[in-house]
Design a protein that fits this description.
With 168 residues, this protein is α/β, with parallel strands linked by helices. The protein has one domain: Lipoprotein like domain (Double Stranded RNA Binding Domain, 2-Layer Sandwich), CATH 3.30.160. 33% of the residues lie in helices and 37% in strands. The protein is built from 3 helices and 6 strands, in the order H-E-E-H-E-E-E-E-H. Strands 1, 2, 3, 4, 5 and 6 form a 6-stranded mixed β-sheet that branches. The longest helix has 26 residues. It starts with a helix and ends with a helix.
């Protein structure tokens, strides 16, 4: 009885990570293809978003390692985008005043297009969003400015996921 339980436990342990894959998940070799991230356009009316999103996306792609980041215009894939929606909505309110917001959910949506340089074929064309939560405090503008890196990183992670896991 004990031997059977031990065998089952061993079988479970060895098959538990059977679907885990190290490296790129889309069938390419890491660094085989290069990617260029151009500056996004900002149609939201909120300042300072372009630099934060572009820098975060480049950093996230470099950390992922599936694609080699190219800045000289010789890349296999070109990523462009337009920041289309910046939205802030109340999540929690002051206990003594139900009209005063304490925490906000901030969402940033971008229309992202990735094209192959050689053929012009569109490999990604979709709206992708990132979000973060911020505590308003006494100065909402400062709180938003401080939460911008987190918002840009979340959007960059989501964009990278679509670029990396896509089938090309």
């Amino acid at each position: 009885m004990m031997r059977l339980a031990f065998s089952c436990l061993l079988a479970l342990l060895f098959t538990g990570c059977a679907s885990y894959q190290l490296g790129p998940t889309n069938g390419t070799t890491a660094g085989e293809r290069s990617i260029e991230v151009q500056f996004f356009q900002n149609k939201t009316g909120e300042p300072r978003l372009i630099e934060a999103v572009t820098a975060s996306l480049r950093k996230t792609l470099q950390q992922d390692g599936t694609y080699k980041l190219d800045t000289r215009g010789e890349s296999d894939v070109i990523v462009t985008g337009t920041l289309i929606k910046y939205q802030r909505g109340g999540v929690t309110f002051q206990p003594s005043d139900v009209r005063t917001v304490r925490d906000y959910n901030v969402t940033l949506s971008a229309h992202v297009v990735a094209r192959e340089r050689s053929s012009g074929k569109v490999v990604l064309d979709r709206v992708i969003s990132g979000r973060t939560t911020l505590r308003a405090g006494s100065d909402l503008a400062s709180a938003e400015r401080q939460s911008l890196p987190n918002l840009a990183e979340d959007l960059a992670r989501n964009i990278t996921t679509y670029l990396v896991d896509g089938t090309w």
